[in-house]
Design goal:
Number of helices: 13
Helix content: 10-25%
CATH architecture of the domain at 3-318: Distorted Sandwich
Largest sheet: 9 strands, antiparallel
Bound molecules: alpha-D-galactopyranose
Strand order of the largest sheet: 6-7-8-9-19-15-14-11-12
Shape: globular
Length: 721
């Protein structure tokens, strides 16, 4: 029984395979958090302490008792205005203008299966894989009902949280802030690990002390953003990849978010993940409900690798949906860095011809095929094929590509409009804009108001009319600017729901089409989009060395299968760096593999090398996509390594890029992980055999060669003795 309610003590206990989560309705009806961590038995209410807290708030119902304060007790869903002065999960502005919501327990329900959230992506599971707990809390004075949702997936070591807020009163109220989940810790020293960045340099890992006061990060850019990923780890001090307790919070949402971490006056730690309160003030009329997007929680007692594995499995098996959640992804070649806007139909057919020869499955016609778009200043919103530029119809082009035995894919950017477009000239009022003010431009484009159904419908119909012209088997859905001109308090949220509605309709209408997410690279790389688009272009930066860092940061929460990664030309277009074709391929094989260059410009030798790379990727695709991923070192180390190990530990693929060269160089070693320590493994290139324990405890010696950024890829196989 993953969810247990102890009627006497009014304690809810949630058990997963290796973790326990516990909370209690106390005698005053407050829902207090008792514990989250490694599996335990028994009631944890003995942990609560009651000293004189007269200098904090004491609820009125307690009479003169100064020992009870919500400012000191651990809570499940802290609200503003209750005498808890720490960060809060919920801020309600009542109809009289006051900010107060005091939630008391009303009732609960336990059901089989995992709850879903109407209009929002969420973790899904079969009936026998999950249980749901709903705890309803009420604020009688304000007419507010909050239903806290808990989804428990025991085998996956995952607990999800969400909340539904309902106006049960008579008057309109406003939600000023709403978190999906809160975790309170009574004691302990923690680090917080977050993933910051910028366009073309996403998800850099930063680890810092949790100090007294509040630390926060998030997005107000309309998308989850390049600048911070909606994911966070709270790690006990000293936690490493393999040792120590750590907690993850992953927001299943693609818009503005806020994560807050606070160490309070009593050295307790609180962490919250939810919607950003900036630019947000959501009105709820009598009887209306609001769904807070879900947070996926996990805990690992065995360091960061264990936590990452929990999230990788969860995203692969319980977040991604549709055929391509499981199916092998095509190796693709994309026209963007090969030709930018300078292409015609012949260019695409030529890429397809090269693809056929090199073993590549699919060619993508990126930006520039519609309206009169020959640069990035025009035509977004006009989703009509530029047949003049292509020199043929889309249907004819696709037939030619398919005739070569290659699949065809197309780039779209549905949420955008250029002022220089027929759509904008006809509907200038369809963009996000504040009355009386000029809108903010970015990349010379404006954002269509996807919170409005008529706007979404128009674009959906235009895009479907294009996709119906031929056998389009892949779509790259881009989004190349941040939101500005937020004209009211609800549009940031309603916009994201509009995006999800569009995504849902697209994947329902084209169930066999692979949709890859993109947002100027990885600006909307989150679990919300992964529900609809099982792979996302990881970054506009294709430099292999920068990718080591970007993919390293991405790997803490997201599986390799989610990461769009391509080999591009050198000197690299973003950094000017030159790396070998081998290094670029080894790095790109830590993702869904592809190319982003013009093979016609390469030598015969390089093309032969590409053929081999594609074969290698296809050979190890199952291991890379479904195996366990291990970080072996940091991208800043002299050797940056990672590896994949099959579930049965029979196969492993070691990857290392040497990032530093020095004179009179020391030998380089790498310790492998995840192998069967008693088994014997053969390294396939040399035929040498090693004991699993030796490879993991003593390490593997890397060949010494003097090539800048040399990459090594070695496969190991368990052999019978
Ligand atoms: C974004 C994408 C790129 C490419 C361009 C096209 O930057 O991330 O891959 O599609 O848009 O304009």
């Amino acid at each position: 029984m993953p969810i247990i309610f102890d009627e006497n003590k009014r304690i809810f206990t949630l058990h997963t395979r290796h973790t326990t989560y516990q909370m209690q309705v106390d005698k005053y009806g407050y829902l207090l958090h008792l514990y989250y961590g490694a599996s335990i038995a028994g009631s944890m209410d003995y942990l609560l302490t009651y000293a004189d807290r007269g200098f904090s708030g004491n609820p009125y119902v307690l009479g003169g008792d100064r020992t009870y304060s919500l400012d000191a007790l651990p809570q499940e869903y802290p609200t503003l205005g209750t005498g808890d002065y720490r960060c809060y999960g919920l801020d309600i502005k009542n109809s009289d203008g006051s900010h107060c919501c005091s939630l008391h327990y009303s009732h609960y329900e336990i059901v089989r299966g995992k709850y879903s959230l109407q209009g929002l992506p969420a973790v899904w599971a079969r009936e026998d894989e999950a249980e749901t707990l709903r705890i309803t809390l009420k604020d009688a004075a304000g007419g507010i009902e909050v239903c806290l949702l808990y989804g428990v997936l025991p085998k996956a070591d995952i607990i999800t949280r969400s909340a539904i807020i309902k106006n049960t009163g008579e008057a309109r109220m406003k939600i000023e802030k709403a978190a999906g989940a809160c975790l309170d810790f009574l004691f302990g020293d923690f680090d917080v690990i977050k993933f910051y960045g910028r366009h073309a340099m996403e998800r850099t890992v930063e680890r810092m002390d949790v100090c007294h006061g509040k630390m926060s990060f998030g997005s107000t850019r309309g998308a989850s953003s390049h600048q911070f990923n909606p994911a966070v780890i709270l790690a006990e001090k000293g936690t490493t990849e393999d040792l120590g307790g750590c907690y993850g919070m992953l927001f299943v949402y693609s818009g503005n978010f806020l994560c807050e971490v606070q160490r309070d006056q009593f050295d307790q730690t609180r962490i919250l993940m939810g919607l950003n309160s900036d630019l947000f003030s959501y009105p709820l009329e009598k009887g209306e409900e609001f769904r807070v997007p879900e947070v996926i929680l996990s805990y690992s007692k065995e360091g960061l690798t264990g936590l990452s594995h929990n999230y990788h499995h969860c995203i692969r098996d319980h977040v991604c949906t549709g055929r391509y959640a499981k199916d092998v992804r095509p190796v693709l070649i994309n026209s963007w860095e090969a030709a930018y806007f300078d292409f015609n139909g012949e260019t695409i057919v030529n890429l397809a011809r090269e693809a056929a020869e090199l073993g590549i499955d699919l060619v993508v016609m990126d930006d520039g095929w519609f309206g009169k778009r020959d640069d990035d200043n025009t035509s977004l919103g006009d989703w009509q094929v530029n047949e003049k530029k292509l020199g043929c119809s889309l249907g004819e082009l696709i037939e030619r590509v398919n005739g070569l035995g290659v699949k065809f894919g197309l780039w779209i950017e549905p949420e955008m409009v250029n002022e220089d477009s027929e759509l904008y000239r006809a509907h200038p009022d369809w963009v996000l804009k504040i009355d009386g003010r000029a809108p903010i431009r970015a990349r010379n484009q404006l954002l269509l108001d996807f919170s409005r159904a008529e706007v979404r419908n128009n674009i959906f119909e235009q895009i479907c009319a294009v996709l119906d012209q031929g056998n389009v088997e892949y779509v790259k859905w881009d989004m190349n600017r941040s939101m500005a001109d937020v004209y009211n308090g609800r549009v940031t949220y309603d916009y994201v729901l509009g995006v999800y509605d569009f995504a849902e309709r697209l994947r329902t209408r084209y169930p066999d089409m692979l949709i890859e997410g993109c947002c100027g690279g990885g600006g909307r790389f989150d679990a919300g989009m992964l529900y609809y688009t099982p792979q996302i272009w990881c970054s506009d930066n294709t430099d292999a060395v920068n990718r080591l860092s970007i993919q390293y940061g991405t790997s803490f929460f997201y599986p390799t299968r989610a990461v769009g990664s391509h080999v591009s030309a050198v000197p690299n277009h973003q950094t000017g760096r030159v790396t070998s074709l081998c290094t670029r391929a080894v790095t790109a094989m830590a993702g869904t593999f592809g190319y982003e260059l013009d093979p016609a410009l390469l030598s015969k030798k390089e093309r032969e090398e590409i053929k081999e790379q594609v074969k290698t990727y296809k050979k190890y695709e199952q291991l890379i996509s479904h195996g366990d991923y291990y970080r072996l070192s940091k991208p800043t180390d002299a050797c940056c390594g990672w590896m994949f190990v099959s579930a049965d530990k029979g196969q492993a693929l070691l990857n290392v890029v040497r990032t530093r060269l020095e004179g009179n160089m020391p030998a380089a070693y790498v310790k492998l992980k995840g192998l069967d320590e008693t088994a014997l493994y053969r390294e396939n290139a040399t035929g040498m055999t090693y004991r699993g324990s030796a490879l993991m405890e003593a390490g593997f010696v890397l060949p010494m060669n003097m090539i800048e950024y040399a990459a090594y890829q070695m496969s190991f196989e368990r052999v019978e003795e």
